[in-house]
Amino acid sequence: MDALDATLGTCVSCNVGGDPGDGTSQGTCPSGQNCHVDGSCSLCSSTAGGLAGTDVEPHSGCLALNPRCNAAGTECQCDTTTSLICDAATATTCAMADTSGVCQCGVDPSCAGVTPACDTTTDPAVCVACVDDDGALGDATTQGTCAADSFLCLADGSCQCQLDAAGGGPGDAMTPGTCTENGQMCLPDGTCKCQADNAGGGDGDGTTQGTCAAGEACNADGTCLACNVDGNPGDGTLQGTCLEGYICSALGTCLCQKGDGSPGDSTDAGTCTLQGQLCTLEGLCSCLTANDGTGVAGDGTMQGTCPNLDQLCRADGSCGCLSANDGTGVPGDNTAQGSCPDMGTICQTDGTCGCLTAADGTGVPGDGTTQGTCLADFCQADGTCAP
């Protein structure tokens, strides 16, 4: 093989069965991306083939309902200036896609409120109220004709999320309720959106995790975004919106890695920062039962890779005490010794062992003047019992 042959496969255009792509299938591209006529790989492309991005001529990889590809090539939209996306359940057309796209059901605006469904059996399509599974008015207990699993059909004909499917009423922005998308909470207005926190803190701003999964960011529109670095896709070198210890990959996932940038192998911490945690083969920061590459996730019965003798490797990958060390333990609540080895110490809510001024859940660290939970000595500020 000569020097030229040795480079084959490193700088070649994608293809589909040996032919140029057309934006409708993966071909030789990575999973989740389409092969375009210019040989590039991405979900969609606004430049491949010079397509107009209108409802008549969508960008490569897009369809008429959302014909325009965003600048990153990651999403098809009706209007890329506002990131508007039309839903097939509420709209049939992206009108004026070449200027300021608008979602429409037939000739009317996209469906919402008490007529949430776009009925395409008529010409033109029209917005209609939802009905229950038996064709009657909704009662907030079943999905009925509502398009999304998250929504129940209400008596006024609208489709809204609820606290539950048993008549629990509107959401409270603090629990998912009937919302099925990870990270989304059911809001009082019946919509499902991620939130800035679990206490009804309002919409996210695209920079913090909020109620989304680790590594994701809660966007103002209520969606959970893949990780990003200052609003741009990651490249496997920077943390971006990922939690400490993780790196934002080009696929939008947060993964730990070894110090040299290679994948974790369950033998050292790599980019993981919490004591006792190793970077696993799956790219997760977690304590393990051993640090020689054979370790598995802890079950709360042994120390494993945790650094201190009073710590157990817990099922969630963290190191700390538990209410018991037989596999049934739960995090401490400042009331009992639990798995802590020394008499007089209490398994505390932060996973540490130490004496407290009381064992009824109200105790605080001692100051050396009171006995607290110690058997005879005084409870010191460092959690030890001493004269």
Description:
By secondary structure, the protein is mainly β. It has a domain at 321-387. Helices cover 0% and strands 15% of the residues. The protein has no helices and 25 strands. A three-stranded antiparallel β-sheet has the order 5-6-7, with no helix packed on it. A two-stranded antiparallel sheet has the order 1-2. Strand 6 and strand 7 form a beta hairpin. The termini are far apart.
Radius of gyration: 28 Å
Strand order of the largest sheet: 5-6-7
Categorize the overall geometry.
flat
Number of strands: 25
Q: Average pLDDT across residues? A: 90
Give the assembly state of these chains. Answer: single chain
| Span of the ends, CA to CA | 79 Å
Alpha-beta classification: mainly beta
Residues in β-strands, percent = 5-15%
Helix count, DSSP H or I runs of 4 or more residues: 0
Share of helix, binned: under 10%
Question: Which terms would index this structure?
Answer:
about 375 residues, mainly beta, 3-stranded antiparallel sheet, two-stranded antiparallel sheet, 25 strands, about 0% helix
Structure summary:
The chain has strands spanning 34-35, 41-42, 68-69, 76-77, 93-95, 102-105, 108-109, 117-119, 126-128, 152-153, 159-160, 184-186, 192-194, 217-218, 224-225, 247-248, 254-255, 278-279, 285-286, 312-313, 319-320, 346-347, 353-354, 378-379, 385-386. By secondary structure, it is an all-beta fold. Helix content is 0%, strand content 15%.
